[in-house]
Design goal:
This protein is about 20% helix and about 20% strand. The chain is of the alpha+beta class. The protein has a single domain, classed as 60s Ribosomal Protein L30, Chain: A.
Length: about 170
């Protein structure tokens, strides 16, 4: 490509970008995490074995709870409303957290997935009732689910009380 239109021109006030003075190495994971102790918490859901995951993982003072759908014992139908489904998701999350030595009060971030924007009010009401003391950061996202009976799914991240401070 020829730039004849730029010949003979000096800096006309256009900003010229320079390379950074210092080259900082980019390290997403600065240490090897393969030797970190992990506690894997299973709920026994068929999707866990089928897709190779667990309900929750506790490691390094944190607990990450996978997306939790309103799965009922013996694959019974879940509640038909978003509030009831969100409460069921939170029950499952609370059980996983308890197994890791945490509680709903230790949760610092949640994500609520709903199939329609109108459902966030009822799912949010159940969220407020469960996480009202913790008041975690929260995101609401509209998605589609694997099971057409599901209206709500919730993820949660918690930090274990490792120093006796809340």
């Amino acid at each position: 490509m020829r730039c004849d239109h730029l010949r003979g021109r000096r800096n006309t006030g256009a900003r010229i970008r320079r390379r950074p003075i210092v080259d900082l190495p980019q390290r997403l994971h600065p240490r090897d995490a393969s030797c970190v102790q992990r506690q894997r918490i299973t709920s026994g859901a068929v999707f866990e074995d089928r897709f190779g995951y667990t309900r929750a993982v506790a490691a390094g003072g944190h607990v990450w709870v996978s997306g939790t759908a309103p799965v009922m014992p013996d694959d019974a139908d879940p509640p038909t409303d978003a509030y009831g489904q969100a409460r069921r998701c939170i029950e499952i999350i609370a059980d996983a957290l308890a197994e890791a030595g945490a509680s709903l009060d230790d949760v610092v971030r949640t994500r609520i997935y709903v199939t329609s924007p109108e459902l966030i009010e009822e799912a949010g009401r159940a969220h407020r009732e469960a996480f009202g003391n913790a008041k975690p950061a929260m995101t609401g996202i509209v998605v589609g689910f694997l099971d057409p009976r599901w209206l709500v799914e919730i993820e949660a991240d918690a930090i274990l009380d490792t120093h006796g401070v809340r």
